[in-house]
Amino acid sequence: MSMKNKMTISDIYFAGRRVIARVDFNVPLDKDGNITDDNRIVGALPTIRYLVENDAKVILVSHLGRPKNGPEAKFSMKPAAERLAQLLGRPVMLAADVIGPDAKAKAAALKNGEILMLENVRFHKEEEKNDPAFAKELASMAELFVNDAFGTAHRAHASTAGLADYLPAVCGFLIKKELDIMGKALDNPERPFVAILGGAKVSDKISVIESLLDKVDTLIIGGGMAYTFLKAQGHNVGKSLCELDRLELANELLAKAAAKNVKFLLPLDNVVAKEFKADAEAFAVDSTEIPDDCMGLDIGPKTIELFSAAIKEAKTVIWNGPPGVFEFEKFANGTRKIAEALANSGAISIVGGGDSAAAVEQLGFADKITHISTGGGASLEFLEGKDLPGISCLTEIPSGSCDCSSCSGCH
Ligand code: AMP
What we know:
- The chain is an alpha/beta fold.
- It has two domains: 9-178 and 388-392, Phosphoglycerate kinase, N-terminal domain (Rossmann fold), CATH 3.40.50; 191-346, Phosphoglycerate kinase, N-terminal domain (Rossmann fold, 3-Layer(aba) Sandwich).
- It has helices spanning 39-53, 78-88, 101-109, 132-139, 173-187, 206-213, 226-232, 247-259, 301-313, 333-344, 354-362, 376-383, 389-392; strands at residues 18-22, 57-61, 93-94, 115-117, 144-147, 169-171, 193-197, 218-221, 263-265, 269-273, 282-286, 295-299, 316-320, 348-351, 371-372.
- Strands 3-4-2-1-5-6 form a six-stranded parallel beta sheet, with helices on both faces.
- Strand 3 (93-94), helix 3 (101-109) and strand 4 (115-117) form a beta-alpha-beta unit.
- The chain is elongated.
- The protein starts with 17 loop residues before the first strand and ends in a 19-residue tail after the last helix.
- The model has no long low-confidence stretch (mean pLDDT 94).
- Adenosine monophosphate binds at residues 198-201, 204, 223-224, 241, 296-297, 321-322, 324-325, 327, 354-355.
- The site of adenosine monophosphate has 17 residues, from strand 12 and helix 11.
């Protein structure tokens, strides 16, 4: 997947034109509806500011949460629109609907540089079905489509891909940055190139492991997924997470790593407990000695040293998934130490979304990381080498002369 040949926001002439921009304002809210983390809104600011400064009539569209039954106040875009207005220091109008009369009237009345936020696009079930009639209705409000929602770029929904069937489509600055940084790391990494994978299941990450084995010098596996590999190597893993139907595959992956001269690092020791509980009694044991009645819930001190040393030597590191049950303080040490090792390394460091990104941010290391991806699932699919529908739908840069009347070359 690459951005080569795809048009970006810099290729388009916006003045006086209605632009529908898909952003990822799927922000976490507390029980009173207050935004607890506005990183995703902040991530879209460069694109929104650029559109405003270039005199576009800006129509923003996003989803928030998982509404299942049409419009519901608790899933309204209102808090996100208000936060955006604060961050920009200019008004952001909110439509009462998505493709209804209020949205259409407000979109039609927009003046240059004004911003309208549509209501939650998932109030329509047609969104996730990528329904063409729905995409067409959305598209009818605008003349151009800018996709800047990296977090949903791996989904073929009406507002992430369908719009491109009806409008010239370009990516915004956030998507461009995500793909530039991750693309360079994968295609032309400074070496040694180390990948750290964690999280719960091997089955979720098989294709990522396979794809990374072709690129990295060292692959580090921690978290619940490590135990399937330890079991495949003949160790007793007690009650740890283990996918018995993947043992053969685990052995194949280990053999593939050996054949490719990729160092494959697994936990040497583990913090184990008898129960999956925040206050369970915890102690460290070597991977060769996990008791039958215990489960591994974090990497142990020897493993932290082993993994940290590999990170210290690296010139490029990609990290996706926590090496322990970091939600429980007793089992968060491994995740903390990996985040710390990454922050202190001189390597180009890329943290791929979701839990590991949250960990890095909570621990205060975010500013020492080269790039924290805004898309968990999307960055994982990108690492797998898959096509992301929100990117592949974008308009190709015309070869030869152009008369599209949209691009900057035509103005
Ligand atoms: P994923 O969504 O696959 O990246 O998995 C993230 C989840 O993996 C987090 O909720 C962690 O608590 C969980 N996890 C990490 N290590 C372990 C482990 N050793 N046993 C069980 N769950 C784990």
